[in-house]
Structure formats: structure tokens, C-alpha cells
Design a protein that fits this description.
Helix content: 25-40%
Largest sheet: 5 strands, mixed
CATH superfamily of the largest domain: ATPase, nucleotide binding domain
Number of helices: 8
Strand content: 25-35%
Structural class: alpha/beta
CATH class of the largest domain: Alpha Beta
Number of domains: 2
Distance between the termini: 25 Å
Number of strands: 14
């Protein structure tokens, strides 16, 4: 029997709301609304945009699961965005109350970390194949992660990094995102070649035989695998799923990452869901693992 869940993905420059229909291990997006948002805009402007796409999907009082970037008090629904470069206007704001005032009376709002929701989506409906234990790494402007045990995010304990967030891992004593991120790869290529290019262009130049471009991708992936190795030894995942924008270059990044991870027992695969992953993960959390 199928069931519907209502989910929101709040990104750095966009917000998407959707109704997800789930039937066992299959899910589809039934209705979707998206809007561009200014992460430096006012609290009212951001909340108006979020509520606008939600009411565009349904105006009835339903239960929503919102995938939001950290730092965020998930239980209380309050943003903690001080000194993080985005959503400063939402720092300390009761987002549950702000949205509730804009939505139909009786609407229920629950929150999940966006990287956790992404990982749960890949676990439930994508490349994770409902593994007993799964790590999901998202690569783009930064390094996101979800550490998933039987469909539930694991956000504390000795088996996972601080708060279950890979961006707290260090490489050579520095935050991992100084080595593994779009800006780090662009800068590595610029230093080596004297040329400025996007990560997509660097991937294209790698395929065309540019040695500097190949090194700009290979080096960070080797560093990522080595940095994840001790955590993989502790967490003991069955599969490591890699999503985010950089996964489009899987033919270039998969081998150095897998090799440097050095865990033959761990299957390393690209994500399958793309931008739908956090929406589908939110649906799984709401329907199967609902918690305040």
C-alpha cells in the first residue's frame, strides 16, 4: 500500500517542497514546487519563500519533514546560523513558529539535517540498497555526510565524527574542506596551471588529457579516502555512497577515492538520486522513522 509524505529541501540558494508517494522500496515525486532564495535575505523573506513553495504543494494541514542545513536545533526548530556565511537572519529564529504562522492551522513540522536526509534517501531508494550500515558523502561547495544505521542517522558516538559531520575531519591539521571542495580543487588547478576553471571544466580537461587537471581531482580524492579510512574502520559500513555535484565526475574521482580508502569490504558507489535524495530521505524519515 502506498503512502504520501510531504518534504522540504532548504538549500543555500533554493528551496523545494514536494509530495512524495512511497510504495515499499520505491518512491516518486508526485508534486513539486521550487523557488530561488537569497541566503543573505531577511528572515521574513526566507520564511515567506519556504512557506510559498509548501502551500504551492498543498494548502491543507499535513505533516511536513524539512531537510535543513546545519547548524540547526532540530528538536526545537531553531536556526543556529551565526558566522556560517548564510542564513544569518535566521540565527536564533524559531522557524517552526514562523512557518506555522504562514501555513494552515494544524500543520505539523519536523526537521532533519539535510546531509542526513540525503543519506537516508540514498539508503532507502537509491544506491545504498538498504544496507545495514552506510556512509553517504556529498561533495560540492563542502563535504556533507550521513552515517546511516538501518535507515537512521547516527550523529554521535565514537564511531562517527563530531555531530556525525565529515566536515569536522581534518587533513594535515586543517579542515577537510580546505582540501576537498569545489574552491579547493579550483585553487589547486589554478596554482598548477595558471588557469582558472570550474570543477566541471577541470573534469572535461582531465578527460582531454590535461595532467594538471587530473591531479587537481585525484589529489583531493586521495586525501578524502585517507581521511575517511579510520572512520570507515570504526563505523564498518557495507557501502559508501558519494553524492553531490562532484559525483558527476565519478569516472575520474571514483578510483582514487576507492583506492585510498583501502577498505575492500566496503563497496564504493556514486549516488543514484541527485537533487531528489534529501526529499526522498525526508519522506522515509517521516513515514518510517518519524521523531520530533
Amino acid at each position: 500500500m502506498s503512502a504520501s509524505a510531504f518534504t522540504v529541501d532548504l538549500g543555500g540558494s533554493h528551496v523545494t517542497a514536494a509530495e512524495i508517494v512511497v510504495d515499499g522500496e520505491r518512491a516518486r515525486v508526485e508534486r513539486r514546487r521550487s523557488a530561488v532564495i537569497d541566503p543573505h535575505g531577511s528572515a521574513d523573506a526566507i520564511l515567506d519563500a519556504v512557506a510559498g513553495v509548501m502551500t504551492g504543494v498543498t494548502r491543507y494541514p499535513v505533516a511536513w519533514r524539512l531537510a535543513v542545513p546545519g547548524p540547526f536545533d532540530l528538536a526545537e526548530g531553531i536556526g543556529r546560523y551565526r558566522d556560517v556565511g548564510k542564513f544569518e537572519a535566521l540565527d536564533g529564529v524559531d522557524i517552526r513558529a514562523g512557518l506555522s504562522a504562514r501555513l494552515a492551522a494544524g500543520t505539523t513540522l519536523r526537521f532533519a539535517n539535510d546531509a542526513d536526509a540525503y543519506g537516508v534517501g540514498e539508503w532507502a531508494f537509491g544506491a545504498g540498497r538498504r544496507a545495514s550500515r552506510m556512509i553517504c558523502i556529498t561533495l560540492g561547495t563542502g563535504v556533507g555526510s550521513g552515517w546511516i544505521v538501518a535507515g537512521e542517522p547516527a550523529d554521535d558516538g565514537p564511531e562517527v565524527p563530531r555531530d556525525g559531520e565529515a566536515h569536522f575531519i581534518e587533513v594535515d591539521g586543517r579542515p577537510i574542506e580546505e582540501t576537498v571542495s569545489t574552491r579547493a580543487i579550483v585553487e589547486r588547478y589554478r596554482r598548477a596551471s595558471g588557469s582558472t576553471a570550474t570543477v566541471r571544466e577541470i573534469a572535461e580537461r582531465t578527460r582531454a588529457g590535461d595532467a594538471d587537471a587530473a591531479d587537481a581531482l585525484r589529489g583531493p580524492m586521495e586525501a578524502l579516502g585517507a581521511a575517511l579510512r579510520p572512520w570507515a574502520e570504526r563505523f564498518r559500513p557495507d557501502v559508501l555512497v558519494v553524492g553531490g555535484g562532484m559525483s558527476a565526475a565519478w569516472d575520474l574521482i571514483g578510483e582514487p577515492l576507492t583506492r585510498s580508502l583501502g577498505r575492500p569490504s566496503v563497496e564504493v558507489v556514486p549516488g543514484a538520486l541527485g537533487e531528489e535524495a534529501p526529499l526522498l530521505g525526508g519522506a522515509s524519515l517521516e513515514l518510517e522513522h518519524a521523531a520530533p
